[in-house]
Sequence to fold (962 residues):
Amino acid sequence: MPDRGGGPTGPRIRAGRPSRRVRTLLVTLGVLAVLGMAFTMFAGFWTDWLWYRSVHYSSVFTTTLSTKIGLFFVFGLLMALAVGVNIWLAHRLRPPLSAMSMEQQSLDRYRMAIAPYKKWLLLAVTALVGLIAGASASSQWRTWLMWVNGVPFHEKDPQFHLDISFYAFDLPWYRFLLGFGFAAAILSLIAAALTHYLYGGLRVTSPGARATAAATGHLSVLLGIFVALKAVAYWLDRYGLAVKSSDFKATGNWTGLRYVDANAYLPAKTILFCIAVICALLFFATLWRRTWQLPVIGFGLMVLSAILIGGLYPAIVQKFQVQPNEQAKEAPYVQKNLKATREAYGIDDTKVSEYAGKSTTTDKIKLRNDANDAASIRIIDPNVVSPTFQQLQQMKNYYGFPTNLDVDRYPTKDGKEQDTVLGLRELNLDGIPKNNWINDHFRYTHGYGVVAAKGTEADSNGEPVFTESDLPSRGDLGTYEQRVYYGEKTTTYSIVGGPQKEIDYSDDSGEKTTSYVGRSGVNLDNPLNRAAYALSFNEPQILYSGAIGKGSRILYNRTPKERVEAVAPWLTIDGDAYPAVVKGRIQWIVDAYTTSNGYPYSSRTTLGDTTADSLTATNNSRAVVAQQNQVNYIRNSVKATVDAYTGEIKLYQWDTHDPVLKTWMKAFPGTVKAKSTISADLMDHLRYPQDLFKVQRELLTRYHVTDAQTFLSGSEVWQVPDDPANDSGSAVPPYYLSMKMPDQTAQAFSLTTTFTPNGRDNLSAFMAVDSDPRASDYGKIRVLKLPTSTTVDGPKQVQSQFNSESAIAETISLLSRGHSKVEYGNLLTVPLDGGLLYVEPVYVRGGSLKYPLLRKVLVTYGGKTAFEDTLDAALDDVFGVKGTTTTPPDTGTNPPDTGNPTVKQALADAQKAIDAGKEALQQPDGPDWDAYAKAQKDLEAALKRAQDAQSKTEKPSGKNGS
Fold:
């Protein structure tokens, strides 16, 4: 029998120990696990680097990353050293012998337990606090870059007479350093106290002194540092009063010093600073005196002073000096707030003019013709007609349009500009015939073409008059690259340029395919890149799929807003990116803002709340990026473009005076191009941004007033009215419109809105800003202020007036019969000869049609309302005369007597078409829209025959007679 203990008969096998093969396997698995975790962390970093390199903004990635790493290590190391040195010092200062007491005997067990691991425990504690502190500091990379690159505003605050840059760039960094210092002092104090207690330097229940001299000196110094930092905090708090927000009963949200701040808090902070300095010196003095008596007295004095001087005294001043005469006391500080807020939001040059609100002109012909000159009234609402574009121009289910279309300016064939409603035919993955990985990411990769329509016109069927349509798109826009690889609806990744052909569209001859030839995206030829993206996108097929070959590129981060935000993380992005055809390319235009929260005396606003309206309530993609950011300074400092085919991102400096933008351009040199590099073709399509306008209009509800006494009384407070055509209860959105304000000689592309008095529905003001950057008045805000002695109907009242007139209500009820639904378009307001012209298109959706068609136009002016099939007819009705615009003749009930039998027959056919149209609208089961459309086309054809025949009859003789 062999010896199981080992020996010459065989090897010894130790019980329970795994074999060499198992150990090797376990080690291998452990190494693979570590490598897997490391590669997972590396994959995110690597794909980010590849993406930034692909868009040629690698400097943004490296600058941001190096700043974060630098802050992490510097402040992590400082915190670790602060805590570690104090633990080491407390250990070095431990007493040689501990008193024999129950307390110390209990602590002996802990000391013995940790004795073998002291170095490792010290390393673990310092590493933990260092990691936490470093992670916190790395999040302050924006604060650091703004501080180190800050440029002056060349404007001083009215209280301390310091440059605004001190509050915008310096003070935030000083506050971070102060907070870090407090954290280091507190953690060091806690760690030192625990170490002293563990090693007998501090005693709780033991007889004799409660602390050794060494422990007393050590902890006193740490407390002295804490109190010294508190002194610095008191000093910085003095400047912080200039940017402090508070609730002021007279005005609501308030920023800056008030009377009590300047006359109570400010001297109190100075006194507390002096007391804190003395108290800190008393703590430091314990190194020689070895007694807590004076520091404790000093600290108590500081706490008592903070209560009495910093709390009670200001309350007394507020109660007995301010409240009895608040307006007089606060007026000088309110005046500073008015001036700073108007400057910080760019509304200081707002032109406020008195406007009667009611016309005194009696010449009806003049009024009717002036209505044509006052505005190019847009009756095609971009926020309503998207389903109509979808139905008529989608062409393929795998294409779609955004919920809200855009308004831009494009030249007509005769060279004149017209307001145009347009949208891109973008990729819609939900409409793909069969969803699978290849189809979703390789075959269906892009949208195709622009669809555009006249903003001021609809055809006889109520459909938009398209100026660019069909597939491929053709029309007034000429030749351009129609494929849309980057768009608002393109939110998934695509892999292009490889062996798989991509689908453009299909027609009677079959599928039209393409292969991406742009240089956008990241090349997947490299196996490392494929592995990294397979891991990042959680899609293993990227690693091994045969559909990926030489030349394959992966496109992602494809919406214009997220691309601009990624390459300029220091910008706040407008909620509405819009497309334009520029030099044969579709370019997405993105407005971007620089903001600050440190402009002294300027009141703060929350961007998400201020920019919310009825459109953002129903379409969150229209919301401004960084919705919850509180700011008190904003500039539209950058115009950005994103090429819809290549994804190329360009940032252009727009506000050449903005110090915040100049600071970021120093931090990220070369990322923003000069304003002079903007081409004339691109300039044609730039416009004043909506979100900035909404912020400004919200501020102007209160800050249109420039007198402190009026501002404090609250008698002139306005509000932005709710959208009368939307049931969300949200603010009416601003509208783009080519129009002429009273002091202008010609129409200008403008962004407009209305105001009503606080808590009432009548109109208090009308606001417009010139939105064409080619004009000298670009950005000029004009406000027409209505009289308070009389009332002028506001949007809600006008809408109620529309709905209350019996003839209109009857027609609306008729249009709504069956399965039909009436939808109101944008209620446009146009100043006209002292009065206000309101125009609202009315759409009907239902029956056999699933998309809205323009059926009626509502117009009101001077208390008279019209409800007609066309805008011209409605204007003619309101003013009682026909305008210069050609309109269909009123045939009446019988055709007029004419000697021309062709004209007579054509007019008879027109009357039949009118009767057929009325009959189609009065069907028992609801309007028959197909029959109505046919009747409208017959009417148009009949009137054209009559016009042609009449013109031949009236044609004058030639030179030689006839």
Observations:
- Residues 286 and 863 are 85 Å apart (CA to CA).
- The chain has a mean pLDDT of 86.
- The first strand starts at residue 245 and ends at 248.
- The two ends are 141 Å apart (CA to CA).
